Amino acid sequence: MIIDVIIAWLHAFDVWVESIIWILISWVTALGPVGVFFGVMIETFIAPIPSPLVPMAAGFILTFELTPLESIFVILFSVMLVGALAATIGSFFGYGIAYFGGYPIIERYGKYLGTSIEEIEYMRKNMEASSRDEIYLFTARAVPIIPLSVVSLLYGALRADAKRFAFFTFLGALPRYLILGLLGWVIGVGWQNLAEMIDLFETLILVLLIVFLVVFILYRIIIRRRARRAKAAVAEDKAESNPEAIDRGEGRQQLPDEVQSKRSLGSPVVGGLLGALPHDP
Which of 21, 25, 78, 101 meets the CB 3.0–4.6 Å disulfide criterion with 33? Predict the structure, then answer.
């Protein structure tokens, strides 16, 4: 029963995506550059729509029966320039969601995700102080098989400077839409098959990024738990080595709550763990 419902839902979702795709293509056919603008902007923040679809369709449809010189001019203006502008504006949808929603989520669930606001701020300051992240952003926008929405969410979560984000998004989108427009023009009627192939690689990269993110979060969680346990064990070992200070009440506030609760219950410290940790003289 549940499997049938899931299959029916997936089928309905696929029909919905297909209907949007044909609407976007009809916009390109009927409206020209205006259709390219709104089509690219929509596919930028609706992830299931293949991002190469509109520029490649425009590269074929808008250059149909034109001379090579006219076709190149149309691609440069109606596909590359218009597409880059639309992608830049559309990218602020995901950027804004992550910018305003990322910090509250991290504040509430950061301990479960293996990160914190302090670490995000540290990464953001390093990003602002270096030009490498601008190169990364430009490259991520320029390569057609890298998902646009993931990049926008990442830079929004890091609260990257909006002006720099917009500038390098636009610069990187220029070669991206130029390449896709030229491919649509050169391939001709087979542009849709190539667009689906590029989208397949884009989906594969998205899946790999999600897997990497999950593995990274799990790794951070494990490392943090081990560090807390080691720190608690060291603090309790120090307390055991100087019981007179504990009897006088000295240093009790320096012990972590976890250690104080263990001491109050009389629980022993694991000897093997303490033996592996360095002790201060």
Answer: 78
